Amino acid sequence: MTAHNVPEVMLEILADLCREMSPEQRYARLLTALKQVFPCDAAALLKLQGSSLQPMAVKGLSDDALGRIFVVDEQPRLAKILLSREPVRFLADSELSDPYDGLIDGTSDSLHVHDCLGVSLYIDDVPWGVLTLDALQPGVFDDIDTLALRTFIRLTEATIRIINLIGGLQARAEREHLVAQAVVADQGQSQLIGDSKAMKLLYQDIDVVARSDLAVLITGETGVGKELVARRLHLSSARADFPLVYVNCAALPENLVESELFGHTQGAFSGASQARAGKFELAHGGTLFLDEVGELPLAVQPKLLRALQSGEIQRPGSDAVHRVDVRIIAATNRDLSREVATGHFRADLYHRLGVYPIQVPALRERHRDVLVLAGHFLELNRRRLGLRGIRLDSTAREALLHYDWPGNVRELEHLISRAVLRARARFPQEVGSRKLLSIGLEVLDLSAPETCSSPADDLALTPSDTVSSPSLRDATANFQRRLVSDTLHRCDGNQSRAARELGLDRGNFSRLIKRLGVNGQRL
Question: Residue 321 phi/psi, 5° resolution?
């Protein structure tokens, strides 16, 4: 774009400050304007989170770049940009490694020759992050308009201030900082990641109920990230400074469930050598997260119900009553309404837990979030294994987008971890020379089964039934199609009736039809 067009673009940015937009939309529009004013192949806006930089928006980079976390100490270019109050230019012969090697759309290998420019962003004299521009050809930024660049920097900082004010981010800054630190430290996914329509609806639900004390029931298939939703609910609540206590109801022996929840006195039962506080008391003032709540034995459910209704608990072996102030978040991959109908779960407890239900979307419903999550897991594995860089080639990205993900996010995490290990073993020369490691179809094993207890998979092979033979897999799929098609025909196309006849949840049955490609005609 020529210089006389610059004021027009700047006026559009100023006009955007008065429009109602989400932070993601504002960031994206900033980068769109940046690429209009300054010629470049890729641009990125990264926010400083603790000791790392996290992408807020990217243009011209592959989608998985949004899932990356760039540790400042490991990225000399980003560190140099962050420490300078002036624009920093890296010429084509710079020996400093580029954080975006292999991530620019349309490239298939490391960027050996390119032009790079970066600026630091400050809000109230505190470093906020960086803005970067990359070009595939050297010399692109030789004649850049420095006045226009400085003006754009000031407008970017003004936009960030508007986002902080509108979203009330200053009040949540410390909690977001703690979450960001956890992402770097943990071995797996530590925060909800994704910008799909399904995830935006989930974020809205969380924001609506987080500040209240209502009980929340989180439902969804195995591996979708229900525990992450519970963490976000707690961190966004008024109880964030108090403990979040986790209980895996499925892992508790039936004879110890009551003791685990409510504690016990010394001598209350064989082996109770000393008094012990239960999870309810430990969570006083905070949140108690009951994971896999559908696995609770029926005998314990009335006592849990009393604790929820009255806020009073009794330790086994004691007549003393303890009052507790606890917010309950429960999660399950079971259909509790069906469990109530079959007598396996108390109706009154179900309604007490499910005051505000939240359904976590399956990964197959989240579209391009798959690539963002894949980038996040690639970065975790890169840091864990001490590799220079890892990227997905175009065939791998397409395969990930078209896979059905019966094991959801957990399956994706495991698949990426296996793929990185295989690629490292398959291409030792690249690892030894510190070249960029590329993940292709040859190291992805998308056909490998993941254990998954989703109701939609009741008609599918179990891990013990599966073998590597494609013919068996095809035969099974054909059997499923014929069974579903015949059932639909018998039910006059009524999917609800057909789902009940097959013992499936209506939503999961609909997804099964889509996955099998059944069009309603009898096969």
Answer: -105, 130
